[in-house]
């Protein structure tokens, strides 16, 4: 100790050491006091439970009572049927009108003339009737068997031509009483067809022609 004191006195370190010692002592005792005064805040813990989110159930539409549903169905069907019936009526009316107009427009324009005699009212057909007589005379003949047996008779038939001069029908109006003569007359008309088209100036869809065939044998 003496040596330390001598050293301190020699280098004048005693005051400095004393001050340093006092400072450290104060600091040592001050720290616990400060720490006891300023305590850190206490931590609070909260309990947390993880719960799944609630599942939303799909909303369901409530069905109407059976009676109400039946009433609704009846109302819908009656409402839907009303316009349909009206449409059907309108449609049927239009169809009827359309058919009537078509039938009137499709009505054939026809005329009936005589091949054997020229009516003054039908003088305009004379040239065309001459053409018909020429073709018919070119194929008409007396059946050999009827000529040999002396079978005679007269018959009247009618044949019809369309615009193109095509034969569309032939029938006997008054027979001769002898099938052989009737068959020959029908063959003659069918064999002579077709004829020239009906002239456009006639403005006809069909021309009906009356023709009489006279079968009379002459020995001369």
Question: Would you summarize the structure shown here?
Answer:
The protein has 220 residues and is of the alpha+beta class. The chain contains six helices and four strands; from the N terminus they run αααβααββαβ.
List keywords for this structure.
single chain, 220 residues, alpha+beta, 4-stranded mixed β-sheet, 4 strands, rod-shaped
Description:
- By secondary structure, this protein is an alpha+beta fold.
- It has a domain at 110-215: Fusion Protein Consisting Of Minor Coat Protein, Glycine Rich Linker, Tola, And A His Tag, Chain: A, Domain 2.
- Helices cover 50% and strands 15% of the residues.
- The protein contains six helices and four strands; from the N terminus they run αααβααββαβ.
- Strands 1-4-2-3 form a four-stranded mixed sheet, with helices on one face.
- Helix 4 packs across helix 6.
Topology:
Blueprint: H1 2-11, H2 14-37, H3 66-106, E1 110-114, H4 126-139, H5 144-149, E2 153-162, E3 167-174, H6 179-192, E4 206-215
Parallel strand pairs: 1-4
Antiparallel strand pairs: 2-3, 2-4
Helix pairs in contact: 4-6
Kindly state the percentage of residues in helix.
40-55%
- What proportion of the residues form beta strands (DSSP E)? 15-25%
Order of helices and strands: HHHEHHEEHE
- What is the total tally of β strands? 4
Question: Do you know the CATH topology of the domain at 110-215?
Answer: Fusion Protein Consisting Of Minor Coat Protein, Glycine Rich Linker, Tola, And A His Tag, Chain: A, Domain 2
Gap from first CA to last CA: 204 Å
In which order are the strands of the major sheet placed?
1-4-2-3
Average pLDDT works out at 75
- From the 3D coordinates, which CATH architecture of the domain at 110-215 would you assign? 2-Layer Sandwich
